[in-house]
């Protein structure tokens, strides 16, 4: 296991003007479960490959437990990596595939057998240990690939690069649960790359949200949802994402589209650039009384909740329609004042309580 640190780490690919990774300083604690979350092209796989040693950064250093490993190979870093598509030997049995990394390292046969059977049990492969890998489905092959990454003990970190892409949707929850349980039993540092917020938020203790090569926020799933530090985080996490309204701020009041004024939980100085008010749909409710006058466009019934799509002076918003409440003829929008956030040029403004 290892504490992984980045010092002014950045990367640019040859011939490309824009950096794939913008300069960052960050620490991943020993034994933590981390997720790199962001859309395609945001730099998360580049960062993962730098950690694994498959790619050398053009700037900065990577430290494992204080040791500079920037120039070391993957093997010398002692990391295990699980890729997006299954990497298995079709002519070998499941047992032989799982044992392969251990045999290569000279682990005794008895210890290899015990470790293989333990990991196979965690992944639901115990009944298939003696089947040839070529006779398995894509989801089972990816389980074997996951198992080969997990079977080694004493690794510095285990890196997962979108490992559930080829897994059927109804099996993803099962595998995420198994990985989480494995991390509880063997608290090795795990880094999980994904563009799927559900995978990131259910797997990781801390999520690294990335956009255009920049780390915009690192935090627990709860912190990312309740206190987005950047409008990208508010938009990317949540379904629907955070509502953002252009506004002007006057101390403890915000002036919204249409000239509506609302109280804020904090006081703000004059803010530069583009100023926006953010609030999640979960904290905006449509009712018949109180709040701001809005125009109702449509209602989506999602089973456990209903989402009302409204407009405030032409600005579209998503809000919650309380369970069992009728759709009001003249809807009003109530915003929870404790859940309001103010952003200047996309970044959370602190304000004074």
Task: Walk me through what this model shows.
By secondary structure, the protein is α+β, with helices and mostly antiparallel strands. The protein folds into 2 domains: 4-236, Rossmann fold, CATH 3.40.50.300; 243-348, OB fold (Dihydrolipoamide Acetyltransferase, E2P). Helix content is 25%, strand content 33%. The protein has 9 helices and 22 strands. It has helices spanning 44-52, 74-77, 94-104, 109-122, 138-150, 169-185, 197-203, 221-226, 231-236, and strands at residues 4-11, 21-28, 33-37, 59-64, 67-68, 79-82, 157-161, 190-194, 206-211, 214-219, 243-246, 248-255, 261-268, 275-279, 284-287, 292-293, 295-301, 306-312, 315-321, 332-335, 341-344, 347-348. Strands 6-7-8-3-9-10 form a 6-stranded mixed beta sheet, with helices on both faces. Strands 2-1-4-5 form a 4-stranded antiparallel beta sheet, covered by helices on one side. Strands 11-14-21-22 form a 4-stranded antiparallel beta sheet. Helix 3 (94-104) runs parallel beside helix 5 (138-150). It starts with a strand and ends in a 5-residue tail after the last strand.
